[in-house]
Amino acid sequence: MSAQRWLALLILGTAAFRLVLAGTTGLGIDESYMVAAGRDLAWGYFDHPPASWWLSSGAAKLLGTEAPLAVRLPFIALFALTTWLMFRLTSELFGEKAGLWAAVTLNMAPVLGLTTATWVLPDGPLVAALLAFALAFHRALRDDSWRAWLAAGLFAGLALLAKYTAALTFAGALVALLTLAPRRLASPRPWVAGLVALTAFAPVLAWNATNGWASFAFQGARAGVRKLAPGAPFATIAGEALFLLPWIWLPLVLLWLRALRTGPKQPGPWLLAWLGFVPITLFVAISLWSPRVLYHWAAPGYLFAFPLLGAWVAANLHRLALRRALAGTAVFLVAALSLAAAEMNLNLLRLRGDPLRQGLDWTPLRAALQARGLLAHPVAAPSWSDAGKLDYALGNAPPVVCLNADCRQFAHRPRTAADLLGQDVLLLAPRQDEARIRASYGPLFREIEALPPVTFALPGRPEVAIGAYLGRELRAIPR
Predict the structure, then answer these.
(1) Fewer CB within a 10 Å sphere, N or C end of the chain?
(2) How far apart are CA 46 and CA 406, in angstroms?
(3) Cβ neighbours of residue 147 under 8 Å, at least 6 residues apart?
(4) More confident site: 254 or 290
(5) In contact, 34 and 56? CB cutoff 8 Å
(6) CB 166 within 8 A of CB 152
(7) Quick one: pLDDT band at residue 462, thresholds 50, 70, 90?
(8) Burial group, residue 271, by CB count within 10 angstroms (0-12, 13-18, 19+)
């Protein structure tokens, strides 16, 4: 078959597999938080720009349910588009056979082919918009047409509406422009494209301006200096390799370094190398002094090395070892993900600490609270993460507020803890004991009454018990 037909089978097959996973696993902590806190549509949100929040909220409203499959559906569809865009970009640079293998290997990298491709996270719309930008930007450098430049500006704006780190890719794009086609800057086209991107991003700036620049302050603080840790960059690199799979990460890095070394005499590889340069290097550097770097942050940088990997695979597919490695990786991923989903739902292995339990939704909680007449009180949680799990389980009836100095988006919702001053509040604490609750939250109330824990069942597990406390007369909120 042609590469395009193989691509269609790849997109359909992987999307079907993701639909099964999405429908048989619950939302994780971050997903629950985004769905619950994102029910109220806004031009901006505390953690990230609005694209992913709009997608999950829009899907829930359109389909009439917040079931995991419903809220994850836009992200699965977006990654089908991402796979096609990877094929198109690579095909224009290196041919359709390379494009097919770039798409295949992209789907094999767990941090992209699983979490980005399925979960309710900002990375889904981010990588789709970045690839669309890269394709339009490549054409703009080549043809210098208004259509290509305007498309590049539009997709740049959409990427910024997904995640602030999109700006790192554009910094690399500027280097590519200056080294490959500096004369383009004498034309109004790239400047107009930049204006289009800024216009698309303007609502986020407006939201931040009216909310004390909270989102920028929060994200900027993550790069703040804490303590020098000389070994941390190596741990960060190892984590990134694990998230991509080490045997995929290593050729990605080697091919990326080769493209940098070759220089602008090979425009395609040089463009890709610089589109990925800043995310790949910056977070490793920041981890030297900041412990808050997460391994998946560099994934959009590695994204642009996959066309290089696709071209290398296409040129070396005659090697039996390579074909076996590709087939083995596919089998390994399908088996591992299927087993993880089964273990999450059945708990057959009884893993220590039950790490997969956070992927189960607490939907039985509502019935347990209702049976005890506790839903008559406003509900509060001691952290943003607990508030997300609880609010998603309760379906916003009643809405859950957060009692913490760090409430993330829960501090910017229409109803916050400040609206409950003077009222009795039901405080649900999934991960804190009574002594800690009294020490941390006792000063906020006239008194705190310990209630019997709220218990409910989860698949394959003994009853889950959540601490319950009735706070009498909320007098203050954490600052």
Answers:
(1) C
(2) 11
(3) none
(4) 254
(5) yes
(6) no
(7) confident
(8) buried
Sign of CA dihedral 209, 215, 220, 221: positive
Q: What's the rounded Cα separation, in Å, for the pair 338 and 466?
A: 29
Neighbouring residues of 201: CB distance < 8 A, sequence distance ≥ 6: 49, 157, 160, 161
Which pLDDT value is given to residue 55? 97
Roughly how many angstroms between the first and final C-alpha of the chain, as a whole number? 63
Per-residue model confidence (pLDDT) at position 7: 98
pLDDT band (50, 70, 90) for residue 319: very high
DSSP structural state of residue 183: G
Average pLDDT, stretch 303-316? 98
Q: In 3-state terms, what secondary structure has residue 14?
A: helix
Rounded (5°) CA angle 378-467-437: 85
Question: Are 175 and 278 a contacting pair, CB within 8 Å?
Answer: no
b/e per residue 46-80 (b: at least 16 CB within 10 A)? bbbbbbbbbbbbebbeeeeebbbbbbbbbbbbbbb
How much is the average pLDDT of 145-164? Answer: 98
pLDDT at 103: 98
pTM, 2 dp: 0.94
Query: 111: which 2 tokens?
Result: 């941090």
C-beta of residue 14 within 8 angstroms of C-beta of residue 107: yes
What percentage of the chain's residues is helix, strand, coil (to nearest 5)?
A: 70, 5, 25
Region class of 334: left (phi > 0), else alpha (psi between -120 and 50), else beta: alpha
Give the three-state DSSP class for 348: coil
Distance CA 67, CA 447 (A): 37
Order of all β-strands in the sheet with 425-429? 400-402, 379-381, 425-429, 464-474, 445-456
Matching residue, tokens 């994204």? 303
CA–CA dist 333, 112 (Å, integer): 13
Model confidence band, residue 292 (pLDDT cutoffs 50, 70, 90): confident
Q: Please report the pLDDT score of residue 285 as a whole number.
A: 95
Pseudo-torsion of CA 115, 118, 120, 126, nearest 10°?
70
Distance CA 12, CA 317 (A): 23
Q: Enumerate the β-bridge partners of residue 43.
A: none
With contact defined as beta carbons under 8 Å apart, do 127 and 300 qualify? Answer: yes
pLDDT for position 327: 97
Are 341 and 455 in contact by the 8 Å Cβ rule? The answer is no
Pairing of strands 400-402, 379-381: parallel
Whole-number mean pLDDT of the chain? 94
Whether pLDDT at 224 is above 90? no
